[in-house]
Design goal:
The protein is of the alpha/beta class. The protein contains eight helices and 14 strands.
């Protein structure tokens, strides 16, 4: 499956740059030089990195320069779909200060499975699209080559128009301006439960999810949040996906997976990744789904219809 974007390399709003490093010393060398250049130019630097990297930077940065602001992304959880709205909010909060903005964004890859890594790659590709036409800013994305496979690094490089190499900011030789290509979804875990639903079946959809999740201790607020998410997705199938769909549920590696298939097509690659405004009449449903689930996978083409997988971490393995 591929997803289109136009004008990625010429995106006026964002200079999207990758920094591949190996080990703590190289991390500090590249990131501190980026910060020094920004402060010398009178720019604000927003830093969102894993906690161990944040501690290292704080130790190296003398004083409390107001031009360096650390942003805590831990509350966003592990769902990469929440990152773009967070950056949009952070940039908007600083835009009124009248100073150009740079960002440093590194995601913790520890313990991530193949589905999360694929969504992180998609997030990097979408950044070029999400900030086209926004106020100009510069984002440096550090990646530790000691923790990421060479194949994953090549894929990530293809999403960045620029790269920081040996102190120089250059066009990234691996960047390609082309539709996003998805890896195949992992096969449904056997055994799984399957249920065909149509109008009037939303209560039955919820019952099927409860039956799958209950033996694994999903209850209380977390169960209620899950049921809100599955109701929204199943309702979308009925309203926009031909009036019916198919639900599959299974548990895999401590995660409840709810998969919805229907005949509809989602044409908006940013669906659910834009924070709704107070006056928005539409677009809140999939936004809410992304906030309630630990991971959301969306695959949609005219040939195959739409597949949406909701991942909910279970407290009981």
């Amino acid at each position: 499956m591929t997803t289109e974007a136009t004008g990625v390399a010429e995106a006026a709003g964002l200079r999207h740059e990758i920094y591949s490093y190996s080990g703590e010393a190289q991390f500090l060398t590249g990131v501190l030089s980026f910060i020094d250049d920004a402060l010398a130019a009178g720019e604000v630097v927003l830093v969102s990195v894993p906690k161990d990297r944040e501690r290292m930077l704080r130790e190296e940065l003398t004083g409390s320069d107001p031009g360096v602001v650390f942003m805590d992304a831990s509350a966003l959880g592990r769902n990469p779909a929440r990152l773009i709205p967070a950056w949009q909010r952070w940039i908007s909060e600083r835009a009124g200060e009248g100073r150009p903005v740079r960002g440093i964004g590194e995601t913790d890859w520890n313990g991530r499975g193949a589905a999360e890594i694929e969504e992180l790659r998609y997030h990097e590709w979408l950044l070029n699209l999400a900030f086209t036409g926004s106020p100009a800013w510069w984002l440096l994305c550090p990646y530790d080559t000691d923790t990421i496979t060479p194949e994953a690094m090549r894929a990530i490089n293809r999403c960045h128009p620029f790269s920081l190499r040996e102190g120089s900011h250059l066009p990234c030789p691996d960047f390609v301006q082309e539709p996003f290509t998805w890896d195949e979804l992992e096969a449904s875990c056997d055994p799984f439960e399957e249920f065909a639903y149509t109008r009037g079946d939303l209560a039955a959809v919820r019952d099927k999810v409860v039956a799958c999740a209950a033996p694994y201790g999903l209850k209380g607020d977390r169960l209620r949040e899950t049921l809100v998410a599955v109701t929204e997705v199943a309702g979308n199938s009925i309203a926009h996906g031909g009036g019916h769909g198919t639900l599959r549920t299974w548990v895999q590696q401590g995660t409840l997976v709810c998969e919805f298939r229907d005949e509809g097509v989602i044409s908006d690659p940013m669906i659910g990744r834009r924070a709704p405004t107070p006056h928005s009449l539409h677009g809140r449903g999939m936004w809410l789904v992304h906030q309630l689930c630990d991971l959301v996978q969306i695959r949609s083409t005219p040939e195959t219809g739409t597949i949406i997988r909701l991942h909910i971490k279970l407290s009981t393995p």
